[in-house]
Amino acid sequence: MSNRAVEELVTVSRVAIVTGAARGIGAAVAKRLASDGFAVAVVDLDESSCKETVAAIENAGGRAIAVGADVSDGDAVTGAVQRVADELGPPTVLINNAGITRDNLLFKMTDGDWDAVIGVHLRGSFLMSRAVQAHQTQQGWGRIVNLSSTSALGNRGQANYSTAKAGLQGFTKTLAIELGKFGVTVNAIAPGFIETDMTAATAERIGVPFEDFKKAAASQIPVNRTGTPEDIAAVVSFFVREEASFVSGQVIYVAGGPKD
Ligand code: NAP
To answer: How remote is the CA of residue 235 from the centroid of ligand 1, in Å?
Structure first.
């Protein structure tokens, strides 16, 4: 790294916000960013649900706060980002990870199923990014990583979710174009099958034990295993580094094989 790059990093606020970080991929990302030297705001619907992630970070010697906010609620987002700026410093890294599924075949999908999924993934990522970019552009440095999915390529029973995850890829590319001149890169990660409560809930919904569900999934994956939250955290860690400053507007499939 050049001396200039090192100097810039020293003066930039190293504060990260990870949404949906009470558990699953978000919790692993929050812990990884803390071990990479960021103070981390652990954001989730319910503040008390963030305590475990915050405690894990603090026990490992890092710095974190728990913030309760619904990312699809404009006032909650404004308040949360302001609180992070006040308590940790200006947020320069944003990981839009909060997510839900409301799976159903199209003919059975309700208006509520559609609106809830689009609201959390798309409106949530939009609101969070708009609030955080004010700090990033002011700092002249920033990183946004959006969680897409292999479902963006189409997945039976997920018209709402696949639409949201494909939408996030367009969102990523447009923000990369708009924010690049401010030193902000924007990328997306599209995970395949990752072992979390989300995939466990899918197994339960279709009535298959999670272990059998994972085994069946692994048999279709070229590297012959399912993914872990740490697999995703490692790629986030790469995107937020200074040395990744020439990588922007990209979607990386983290799926144990090629997916597009
Ligand atoms: P998860 O275990 O279900 O965790 C998601 C977290 O997001 C939960 O803590 C949840 O809170 C929180 N959340 C939901 N709605 C929210 C809202 N409106 N505001 C704030 N937080 C909210 O999911 P995951 O498997 O870790 O997935 C994380 C991300 O990766 C999601 O965007 C998901 O779509 C994506 N992804 C996952 C997989 C996979 O195989 N697991 C694959 C591809 C992409 P509550 O617990 O209170 O609901």
So the answer is: 17
Confidence of residue 114 (pLDDT cuts 50, 70, 90): very high
Number of Cβ within a 10 Å radius of residue 118:
17
Q: How far apart are CA 117 and CA 115, in angstroms?
A: 6
Torsion angle of the four alpha carbons 55, 61, 63, 69, in this order, in degrees rounded to the nearest 10? -20
Cβ 15 under 6 angstroms from ligand 1: no
Instruction: Provide the pLDDT for residue 260.
Output: 72
The CATH class, in words, for 3-192+230-253 is: alpha beta
Domain boundaries, the chain: 3-192+230-253, 194-226
**74 Cα–ligand 1 center, Å:** 19
- Of 98, 111, 34, 97, the closest CA to residue 65 belongs to 34
Nearest atom within ligand 1 for CA of residue 227: 40
- The kind and range of the H/E element at 189 are strand 184-191
Is residue 24 within 6 Å of ligand 1 at its C-beta? yes
Supply the pLDDT for residue 3: 54
Q: Is residue 171 over pLDDT 80?
A: yes
Which residue, chain included where needed, has tokens 């947020």? 91
State the burial class of residue 260 (Cβ atoms within 10 Å of its Cβ: 0-12, 13-18, 19+): exposed
Q: Is 102 in the pocket of ligand 1 (CB under 6 A)?
A: no
Q: How far is the CA of 44 from the centre of ligand 1 (A)?
A: 9
Where do runs of H (alpha helix) occur along the chain?
3-11, 24-35, 51-59, 74-87, 111-118, 124-139, 159-179, 197-205, 210-219, 229-240
Active site residue 253: no
